[in-house]
Amino acid sequence: MGAISVRLPDDLKDKAMKLAKKKNISFNSLVNHWLQAAVMQDETLEWMNKQLGGKNPADLIADFGDFLDKSEPGEEPAPEDMQQALND
């Protein structure tokens, strides 16, 4: 395990220390949690961008909205019907 020294503005450090105390965890654990969350978020966004294959997320959302607009209440559609709706 590695150790680093990080300089923080005093007010940020004070607030983070209070938050750690409120959560009943060490300051070190709080910082580790924040760093893990930031890294996981970045990795997730990279994975999602890779899965999108360069497609515009707004276009995908619009396409999904169009798909939902075509759906009607009733029995669950067969996989062939869903594929046909996606192709339309």
UniProtKB/TrEMBL annotation:
Give the residue range of the signal peptide. none
**Which intervals of the chain are annotated as region Disordered?**
68-88
Look up the domain of life of the source.
Answer: Bacteria
**GO BP term, example:** regulation of DNA-templated transcription
Against Gene3D superfamilies, the record matches this protein to:
Met repressor-like
Q: Which InterPro entries match?
A: Arc_rbn_hlx_hlx, Ribbon_hlx_hlx
Q: What is this protein called?
A: Toxin-antitoxin system HicB family antitoxin
Record lineage: Bacteria, Pseudomonadati, Nitrospinota/Tectimicrobiota group, Candidatus Tectimicrobiota, Candidatus Entotheonellia
